[in-house]
Amino acid sequence: MATSRASSRSHRDITNVMQRLQDEQEIVQKRTFTKWINSHLAKRKPPMVVDDLFEDMKDGVKLLALLEVLSGQKLPCEQGRRVKRIHAVANIGTALKFLEGRKIKLVNINATDIADGRPSIVLGLMWTIILYFQIEELTSNLPQLQSLSSSASSVDSMVSTETASPPSKRKVTAKIQGNAKKTLLKWVQHTAGKQMGIEVKDFGKSWRTGLAFHSVIHAIRPELVDLEKVKSRSNRENLEDAFTIAETQLGIPRLLDPEDVDVDKPDEKSIMTYVAQFLTQYPDIRGAGCDGQENEREDRLILKETKVWIEQFERDLTRAQMTESNLQDKYQSFKHFRVQYEIKRKQVEHLIQPLYRDGKLSLDQALVKQCWERVSSRLFDWHIQLDKSLPAPLGTIGAWLYRAEVALREEITIQQVHEETAKTIQRKLEQHKDLLQNTDAHKRAFHEIYQTRSVNGIPMPPDQLEDMAERFHFVSSTSELHLMKMEFLELKYRLLSLLVLAESKLKSWIIKYGRRESVELLLQSYISFIENSKFFEQYEVTYQILKQTAEMYVKADGSVEEAENVMKFMNETTAQWRNLSVEVRSVRSMLEEVLSNWDRYGDTVASLQAWLEDAEKMLSQSENAKKDFFRNLPHWMQQHTAMNDAGNFLIESCDEIVSRDLKQQLLLLNGRWRELFMEVKQYARADEMDRMKKEYTDYTTTLSAFAAEAHRKLSEPLDVSLINVKLLIQDLEDIEKRVPVMDAQYKMVTKTAHLIAKESPQEEANELFTTMSRLKEQLSKVKECYSPLLSEAQQLSVPLEELETQITSFYDSLGKINEIISVLEREAQSSSLFKQKHQELLACQESCRKTLMLIEKGSQSVQKLVTLSPVLKHWDHTKLQRQIADVHHAFQNMIKKTGEWKKHVEANSRLMKKFEESRAELEKVLRVAQEGLEEKGDPEELLRKHTEFFSQLDQRVLNAFLKACDELTDILPEQEQQGLQEAVRKLHKQWKDLQGEAPYHLLHLKIAVEKNRFSAAVEECRAELERETKLVPQEGSEKIIKEHRVFFGDKGPHHLCEKRLQLIEELCVKLPVLDPVRDTSGACHSALRELRASIDRTYAMLMDDPDKWKDYGGRFSEFSSWVSAKEARLKRIKGEAIDTANHDEVKHVVDEIRNDITQKGETLSWLKSRLKHLIDVSSEKEAQKRGDELAELSSSFKVLVASLSEVEEMLSNFGECVQYKEIVTSSLEELMSGSPESQEQAEKILDTESLFEAQQLLLHHQQKTKMISAKKRDLQQQMEQAQQGGQAGPGQEELRKLENTLTGLEQRRERQERRIQVSLRKWERFETNKETVVRYLFQTGSSHERFLSFSSLESLSSELEQTKEFSKRTESIATQAENLVKEASEMPLGPRNKQLLQQQAKSIKEQVKKLEDTLEEEYVLHNF
């Protein structure tokens, strides 16, 4: 734990140190860059000065001025008295655009960040400008260093990493690295370091001693530096001397101070900025030209040697590739060449790096690069060929492995447009996912081959297998991270594309505006882009997905550097978006402000032009007319000001053309206004005069009221009391505060009066001055009087406050004495408490005596002050004297009262002690009893214990207490007896309450005991139900049903629960109505109901269990199938024409069926017997269903037997009469067509809206049925005639089929009619019962109100009896309402009618329930 805390502190310390160093570097950079900027801005005409770099760059004005000085170009700039933020962002955007036009990369530098003054961003921008316009430009202009300069921009070079070390044959010191920093460092090394033997390694610590600065100065002008003296001085002295010499002798601005450099880690950028200025004084490198030429010749020689080696390597590679050999030898040869290739690769890549600023290669470099690329391609092709030449499936795996490696190593081409980059990454991501999804399959296949080291018995090269295994490990270990990185990059560039899009839109919106129409178009464009397309929501969604993806990627990658880069990108993006979003959101308000000013400008110009025309015409009118017309001149002055404000705003905000037009228009209007105003300005004071008179009147009224009120408060008589004096002091202090205000108002009104007097008649002016003189005199008098009175009152308030405090203290002590006496008189006290109270009483008496003396002394002091003060002579101190007299009187009463109390205290102390002892004994008994009532535990144990305790409760304790009370009462005064009697009544009441609560407490315990027993029986039943449920799948439901019936029989626990519940109910009835324990029976009822429901559900589940029907169902299905098959066979026989050809076959089939019928008859008997047994252990519904099925099957069997007889008869009477075929057939079809229609009408009966309508439809249906029955009888007569004729024909079987169908329809129709009749009878019974309940509810309305209104106590008893009778009748009605609900749910009506009846029944039930609740509440209230 200590180690973790130490490491945590160490980490915080390191973080703090790093932050402090960063802050120090920022301070140094800010100071250096500010001096550098001012050195250039001093060249501007007029010159500018930057005081605070971060603040002065916010508006972009000085930034553009600096770029103008550095580039010599004129840049557009938004200027004004107050540059708005939107114009500042536009200025900064112009500067950044100018830098981008010069191919200067600006990394994470936005206009909004500069406008916000973010230190790191401002310093970064300034460093970029210094680097490009000074350091890079000066170093690149040196002709001797041109051949050694890199093609990369110095801005890029500062964030790039160095490549591998050059070949060993090249001299490290012969080549200066190609970026500006290294070029500048090399210039210092060549110009100064070699001359003085100083090793300058960097732009940091190498400069701390000051020797490097002196060496540079010495290289330029040797006579300025004494090297021996420099080496012997301190760092600060050397630095100060070097900066002074450079400034005074070489004209190099002093950008640094010694304390900036003489630190542990000097700022590199600041030192580079300063050192680069020396290039302007000494742009030459001694010996650099010669060294450069020598290096160039050596470079060319190395390149030629390298080209010869590559060409020889290629020839050897080609020969080895063409050589025929086995797989092992080929791969060994390939490995040999690949090792040589890898050894040479870093050296060659370093040689072919560009050396020129334009990025071009020399001819030798281009040839080497061409040869190297050709060799690389050939070697890779050979590797692919070796993998593909392996026998399948290893060859296929090798080809896939190569593609996977290429995909994982493929670099993402970053395009200029971020959206295109994101699409490219998305496309490649999909390709890579498709490719890498087969990794596991290929890996498994390769693992099998790797273990056997062969494919189909052919040995594979071990080295090649090992190589492929390593490659597989690389693919499998990096594929997931690669895909996560691709997803992160895709989202990253999508987010960047949104940022770029927002910035481009922002630049198009923060421009110089045109006319109002163009501004409206810009606003519409903003609304369409930002609000309609929900740009902010789109960005937020993309950012959140990117954030989640970044977290997953960083977690999977595990690289600290990558995590820092990702987090840095996320933080920079967040900061950029935060500022950018603020700017984007502010665009709308700016556009709306511009539109508002356009509207205001247009309105004021139009109205002002019209008024000017009228005013110019009015100049020729009379004086009164002009005075009346120009009375509202101040209003037009305001309009004129508003027009100029809006116009000036538009001039600053709009482009040059619009600004010029606005300036011209304003110039014309302002000219007309000036000419007119010079002639009519005197009329503008008419309203001013009225205003001044009103102000004069208001001020004089206020001053007069103040003077009168102050005089009244200063002179009125006052009763001497603390509250009156304090109120007076408050009033005087208020007067003191208001006097300066009144003086100021007096001065103002004096000036106003003089202004009015100048333009008023002499008489009115004299009156004004008289009023002012009177006010001045009144104010002077107030000033003279209030100050001494305030002083005297404040002086008097001190003794008054002390006197008031003493009086309050006296009455507090007096009240405490009265309180002590009343307490002691009210109830008996213990001896210790009595002594304590007596001591308190004596102390309070002494306190009152001392306080009284102080009161008298204070009263005399106050009266003396009032009498001797000349200011307070009119004050009355009678009230104070009366107050002191009241105090004396109260003190005398207190003395008298305490004396009387002491007389009878001693008399009752003995009896009081006896009383206390008896009361303590009684209270102990009561406490023990009360603890018993509140004791918790096992109800049976408590019942036994408490029954014994309460049966032995002794009345003698109470009698002793009452006797002691009587004795004490005899000697106590009447006023003290009340407290004693109250205490006796309280304890006596507690005793009676105990005697009253004890029986109910015992009842509670008995109920709790019975409840526990009831709960145990319920739990036993529930356990049995759970056991039965678990055993059903194992033992079958028949056995469980029998056990269920035995367990839950008449003598089972279930009935024991009912007996327990009955006993609980009997006990609960004995409790008071409001006792909550009385509800125990209700809870037990609920538990029993739930138990009954569980028993019923379990029993129903057992009864509905389908397993017991398995054997029966199998035989039933078999028998049903047989009957169906034989029926079908007989139907086919009946349907076929019987002739001589098929007669024998039909007879054989009929005989076979006849033989099977006997056997199947036994099966039917078994089914009936089994069904009878199963019905006893099944639900009524299931039993009914199975019974109906068996009855139907039995009926079908009978029909089969009858059909068989018919077929046998048909065979015996083959060829009988068919003369009535057509008549009988048509009649049957007519009847059959009528039967479905009749059935459909019958179904509609149960879905009618009313019972009467249903009964009418039933009568109509019965009449129609009778007609169909009559037709059937006629048809049967016709068929009998045909049978009597003895003529056989082919249509006889068809007639029988139709007859059977008709018989079935007739049977179904009869069943349907019976069902309808039963349903209608139930419906009729339901309506009758409903009418009875509704009539009862209606009749009870007025009766119920009558019961509520009883006139006297004598009628209350009879009213209660009526209410009880009424409740009984309501219970009967409630039962009927419950039956209505049940009947409505069971009634076989149509769905609509059934739902309607259920709703009616539920509504009636709720009304009856509400009536029951009301009657019960009233009954309880009446009893109460």
Structural overview:
- The protein is built from 46 helices and 2 strands.
- It is mostly helical.
- A two-stranded antiparallel ribbon has the order 1-2.
- Helix 6 packs parallel to helix 13 (268-276).
Short description:
By secondary structure, the chain is mostly helical. The protein is built from 46 helices and 2 strands.
Task: Annotate the secondary structure layout.
Layout: H1 2-41, H2 53-56, H3 61-71, H4 85-101, H5 111-116, H6 119-140, H7 154-157, H8 180-196, H9 211-220, H10 227-232, H11 235-248, H12 258-261, H13 268-276, H14 288-322, H15 327-351, H16 363-388, H17 394-409, H18 418-436, H19 439-452, E1 454-455, E2 458-459, H20 462-509, H21 516-532, H22 535-557, H23 560-618, H24 623-629, H25 633-653, H26 656-680, H27 685-715, H28 722-758, H29 762-826, H30 831-868, H31 878-905, H32 909-934, H33 939-951, H34 956-971, H35 974-1035, H36 1037-1047, H37 1053-1069, H38 1080-1104, H39 1110-1135, H40 1143-1175, H41 1180-1212, H42 1221-1245, H43 1251-1284, H44 1292-1348, H45 1354-1386, H46 1391-1423
Antiparallel strand pairs: 1-2
- DSSP E strands, number: 2
Rg, Cα atoms, Å: 59 Å
Strand order of the largest sheet: 1-2
User: In terms of per-residue confidence, which ranges show pLDDT below 50 for 5 or more consecutive residues?
Assistant: 1-11, 143-178, 285-290, 1215-1220, 1285-1290, 1345-1352
User: SS-based structural class?
Assistant: mainly alpha
Number of helices: 46
Q: Summarize the biggest pleated sheet.
A: 2 strands, antiparallel
| Straight-line N-to-C gap | 71 Å
Query: β content, as a range?
Result: under 5%
Shape: extended
Q: Please tell me the overall pLDDT.
A: 76
